[in-house]
Every structure is written in C-alpha cells, then in structure tokens.
Amino acid sequence: MKKLILTVLPCLFFASLYAQIKVVTDGSLEVNTYGTVHVSQTITTGDASGFDFNTASTIPGFLFEQDRSESSGFYCDGDIVAIYSPGDRDRLLRMYDSDAGMVEKWYLDGNGNAYTISDERSKKNITDIQNSLSLLITLKAKKYNYIGNDKEKYGKAEENKFDSSQKQYYGFLAQDVEKVFPNVVSEDEDGNKFVCYTQLIPVIIEGVQEQQETIDQQQEEIDLLKAQVEDLATKLSALISAK
C-alpha cells in the first residue's frame, strides 16, 4: 500500500504540473492561462528579491513579449529599460491604482506624451491658487552639472557613453523650492529630495494671469492719463488761440 501511494503521488504531481506548464516543439515554455510561476530568490537589490537572466550569454538584457506577430513587451539590460508596443491604440503605457478599484492614474501615448488623471471627480478640497507671482519671484533658477556616478563603486570599468556630469542642466534646488512650495517636494528614505516640476505649471500660469491683470490695470491708468493730457493740451491750445 505504501509503495502504491509513493507511486501515485508523483504521477499526480507531474500530471498537474504538465497541465499548467509544457515545452512546445520550438523549445518555448508555455504556461497555462491562469498559471503562476514562482521563482525563488537568487539575487537581491536592496530589500527586493529577484533573479538573473542570461548570465552565460553574450547577448545583453532580457525581454518579455506578448506574441511574435506584432510584439509588445518589456526589455532591460545593464544600461536601459524599454517598454515597446506597436502603438495601435492611443495609450502605449498605462498605470493603475489597484487599491482604488483599478483606476487609471497615468498613461503615455504613442507619441511620447504623458497624461495624468485630472478629472474633477477624482479631487476634493478644490480652491483657487492665490498670490502665485509673489511666491514665484522668490525662486532662483539655477544651472548646474550632476555629480557623476562612482564607476569603481558601481562596477563601471568602462567609460559611460552618456555622462551627466559633463552636461549642463537648468532647474531649481529642491531645498529652495521646499521653502516656497513644500507640497511639490518629496524625500526618499535616504533623505534625497525630489521636485515634481509639473505641479509648478499651474502656479506659473496663475502667476502669469496675475501679472496680466496688473498690466491691464496699468494700461487703463496710462490710457486715462493720456486722455487727460490730450484734453489739457486741447484746452491750453484754445487759451493760447484766444489771446
């Protein structure tokens, strides 16, 4: 009886396994539609577990593809991460919030334009931005170079094709922005600060509108003064003529 159980159990296991995973004639691995592949931890980046692909091959990177006729998928190697698609729809890349009932939060279209959800129904505590111009003029724009990566520390023996330390950039210092617009600055677990530049766009637009209102008011005053000067000039001319 014991031998029978030991014989039947492996058969059931492999029968169940074959029903979910199989190798097709071209050598590809096929997984059942609702199957799940679990990979044990073999490498670690920070606190995240993962695994290495293609370590014995000279071909860099790895990819996941949907199909082979008109493929779309994910590719990465030691230098780049790429997501590619035929772009047949207006949304090339989409991001959802699963905790909010799979609500779409952001997408990238086929031309590389990014869209963020901005529907009024997704917002609350809506108020107008005030005094933007007075806040904006306190910001000091800077030009700078980024500090390059430590090649020895990160195992980069070869020279980088793109070295950000050699290119000049324009922007703001997060510490300066935080003093004026703290809500557009975030901080990671290591204390590094990040600026969401897109959140400054509405502030800039409001500042331009405020400035235009001031210009319009000044123009009205100028027009009024010009009319008064012309009226005085006419009266003065009439007085001179009367003499």
Structure description:
Strand 3 and strand 4 (48-50) form a beta hairpin. The chain has 243 residues and is of the alpha+beta class. The termini are far apart. It is elongated and about 115 Å long. Residues 2-18 have low confidence and may be disordered. It has a domain at 129-150 and 162-233. Helix content is 30%, strand content 21%. It has helices at residues 2-20, 132-136, 174-180, 200-242, and strands spanning 21-23, 29-31, 43-45, 48-50, 62-65, 73-76, 81-84, 93-97, 103-108, 114-116, 142-145, 168-171, 185-187, 193-195. It holds the Pfam family Peptidase_S74. InterPro entries: S74_ICA (IPR030392), WH-like_DNA-bd_sf (IPR036388). Residues 118-222 form the Peptidase S74 domain.
Ranges with pLDDT <50 over ≥5 residues? 2-18
Question: What percent of the residues sit in helical stretches (DSSP H or I)?
Answer: 25-40%
Overall number of strands:
14
Task: Determine the number of helices (DSSP H or I, runs of at least 4 residues).
Answer: 4
First-residue to last-residue Cα separation: 138 Å
Query: Mean pLDDT, as a whole number?
Result: 77
Could you spell the SSE succession in H and E letters?
Answer: HEEEEEEEEEEHEEHEEH
Decide which structural class fits the backbone.
alpha+beta
Order of strands, widest sheet: 5-6-7
Q: Sheet with the most strands?
A: 3 strands, antiparallel
Beta-strand percentage? 15-25%
What is Rg?
A: 32 Å
Structure, briefly:
With 243 residues, the protein is of the alpha+beta class. It has helices at residues 2-20, 132-136, 174-180, 200-242, and strands at 21-23, 29-31, 43-45, 48-50, 62-65, 73-76, 81-84, 93-97, 103-108, 114-116, 142-145, 168-171, 185-187, 193-195.
